[in-house]
Amino acid sequence: MIPHMTKTILITILTLSVLLSCKDQREKEISKIKLEYDFIEFHKDFFLANEEKLLVLKKKFPYLFPSALTNKEWLDKINDPDEQILFKITDSVYPNLKIIHDQTDKLYKYIKYYNPTFSPPKTFTLINGLDYETPIIYADSLAFISLDMFLGADSEVYNNFPKYISSNFTQDNIIVDLAKKIIQKEYVIHRDQSFIGSMIYFGKQLYLAELFLPDVKENLILGIPQSKLTWSIENESEIWKYFISHEMLFSTNQSLNKRFIDLAPFSKFYLGNDRESPGGIGNFIGLQIVRSYMKNNSVSIDKMIKTNTDILFKNSKYKPTK
Radius of gyration over alpha carbons of the chain, in Å? Predict the structure, then answer.
């Protein structure tokens, strides 16, 4: 008769073996996926263009040149000293875009594996005047990556940005931001007005991002420093107790989103250690709930996405570890 402890160890080993085998099979299938899309280093073509090359670019990519601007105005932009400085800084950080191209390939393959109807977009690199509100744009068949928003957290060009914002202006964040933009566009996820509805809404997006970016660290997926992820894990149970004790879960008070969902330097519990927490702690909790739901229910990704807040929460059996 096999002792209980030995039996438990054997079950664990068998489970891990099955999981690893499934992962290996998935990787093989994904590696075989063939993609057809263009990856265009437009920022170089544009800022190295003369009048003749500008006309070629305008003819090739008319949708990138609003007709309201004349050729002279485009050339003035190319030759503007500040624009050229930003281009040179960007080019020094990204002299070669092979890594970024390889990452987009892998991302697009993973998305297509889980969503066979997905068509990879024609992907452009741009320099967009430090437009921090739209560092990535995804519109069906086109994707635009503004490289000037990913020059490194300590880049001098971000001196006027708050640190909690500029900390995500790194090369590692390009593929994460691109994945999130595609998820927002390709997947219709319902968001109800309750606080837990917001948490689960973003939790679903983050779960998909993890699925499509298996090699990316969790703190990058969440957009927070590793130290603040560690704090979140260590305090998960207390965070959950706080939400419950203050009757926040089913509240429709939108101020809760500002305190616990939106981009911020830290979450606002109004306690002495608030600054140790990451901004948007509710997104972290939402991800844990969705993970728990997928662990405790044999459902497809599509089913998870379509499941409403109440049912998902109830069937998640979410219970933070002590």
Answer: 23
